[in-house]
Amino acid sequence: MYRNLFILPVLITMTFCSQNSQKEKEKADIKSNVIIILTDDQGYNDVGFNGCKDIPTPNLDRIAKKGIVCTNAYVSYAVCGPSRAGLITGRYQDRFGFGRNPLFAPKDPNQGLPLTEQTLASALKQGDYKTMAIGKWHLGAYKKQRPLNRGFDEFFGFLTGGHMYFPEDLTLADISEVKSQYAAYKTRILKNNTRVDIKEYLTDALTNEAVSFIERNKENPFFLYLAYNAPHTPLQATEKYLNRFKNIQNKKRRTYAAMVSAVDDGVGKILNKLNELNIEGNTIVFYLSDNGGPEKHNGSDNGPLREGKGSLYEGGIHVPFAVQWPDVLPAGKKYDKPIISLDIFSTVVKYAGVKPKNKLDGVDLVPYLTGKDSSYPHDYLFWRKFDQKAYAVRNRDMKLVNANGEKNELFNLTDDIGETTPLNNKTKTDELLKMKNHWDSQMIDPVFLGLRHNKEYNKLHPDRFDPEKY
Ligand code: CA
To answer: Could you confirm whether 52 is annotated as catalytic?
Structure first.
């Protein structure tokens, strides 16, 4: 079977050195498959490979053992929607006005990812990849912004920022029955353009679709964007998973643990399928959470990190992250230099041999993760929360954070990961502020109202949920 060129310098070198040169050559000519496993609101500490004790995650830990744990991995925003917009475009989302968490507004063409942006799926279509999005979308419910119009061949999931997990709770036939922001959590699942009934716990249903997609695409390069909504609220788990955590007394933590455990089972099924189909070696699997855990809301644990979801302290943006790619990356390593979710796009398109449409903000991680390049992947990483006038910038060990729009605090994260003791260093503060202002000047204001403007939006758009006009 013919596959387009997929050239990896490292493999080419091996071709000349190895006795199995023909085999290696074949490997080098094969495009790698790409899987992104994104969890929702999972705490930094809530995976075995980051030291979690009460929630075993043997399958997420398999990724860590077979690949690399990035201990200083960030997302580009502290809540769901903007973080996903950054991940899927490989660009700081404020470049295109995605500085707020979108509302569910299916008639609004501006409430989501602008059509000028290219998704990773669209980029990979140029390289003949088959693409599928599973789970939470949250990048726009308007028709033109839905996954099938944004580079995905297939979709199984829901359009809004969260969803009910039990089939019996999915009582709304479709979005024409949705009359408020959070009622959308109850719509039936969307399979491509059709609403379907599911029979299982939602996390299990998402896993089964993922396994089926892999199975159906074993002969061609594929990209699977698997965005579990677990362990985002509502906290709902089946007895099968709850029974594993009889030892956890706190009910919230117990249900959260069960939800994480269901994801972990799913990851196990996916890894087993890759193994069974003998495509594990040339499949790159990224795992990360879309933002830090909202500890009080879902029982998550960000460990030593300060605060959680929504915050520009580490707890909001510093996430669990592991990647495996057995043909290319070493196994069982840790990588400590700061990286960001935006790097996923840059890494993937480089080896898929496709040219991105827009200027990317990430870097190809492979030279860093293989140890070939020992410099820092990024001199500076930036964050901002437009409405709160909050921002942060990280440069190597140092981070400047203005978490509430009021005061600047400088921390050395290598010495003080908990951001407990601000340093008094005007020169460094001024340098980071200058870099942040330069970056900020390239960003634009949000192009849509966000979740916190729900009431205001309803006043401006009284026909928001008028099904006649969908
Ligand atoms: Ca989230």
So the answer is: no
Question: Among candidates 408, 409, 407, 412, which has minimal Cα distance to 395?
Answer: 412
- The hierarchical CATH code for the domain 381-451 is 3.30.1120.10
The Cα–Cα gap between 314 and 310 comes to 10
Rg (CA), the chain: 21
Q: What span, in angstroms and rounded, lies between the C-alpha atoms of 459 and 56?
A: 47
Nearest to 327 by CA among 396, 269, 278, 291: 278
Confidence of residue 10 (pLDDT cuts 50, 70, 90): very low
The third-level CATH classification (topology) of the domain covering 32-369 is: Alkaline Phosphatase, subunit A (3.40.720)
pLDDT digits (tens, 9 = 90+) for 221-249: 999 999 999 999 999 999 999 999 999 99
Find the catalytic residue in 138, 163, 318, 378.
Answer: 138
- In this prediction, residue 381 has a pLDDT band, given cuts at 50, 70 and 90, of very high
| Domain extent listing, the chain | 32-369, 381-451
Q: Is pTM beyond 0.85 here?
A: yes
How is residue 188 written in tokens? 């039936």
Q: Using CA atoms, how far apart are residues 359 and 351, in angstroms rounded to an integer?
A: 17
User: What are the counts of helices (DSSP H) followed by strands (DSSP E) for the chain?
Assistant: 14, 16
Residue with structure tokens 């020169």? 427
Instruction: Based on the residue annotation, tell me whether 80 is a catalytic residue of this protein.
Output: yes
CB 163 within 8 A of CB 202: yes
Q: Please tell me if the domain spanning 32-369 has the same topology as the one spanning 381-451.
A: no
Residues near ligand 1 ion, CB 5 Å cutoff: 40-41, 80, 290-291
230 CA → ligand 1 middle, Å: 9
Q: Which residues of 254-265 are buried (b: 16+ CB within 10 A; e: fewer)?
A: bbbbbbbbbbbb
Cα separation values, 103 from 142, 160, 182, 370, 454, Å: 11, 8, 10, 41, 7
Q: What is the pLDDT of residues 166-217, one digit of tens each?
A: 999 999 999 899 999 999 999 999 999 999 999 999 999 999 999 999 999 9
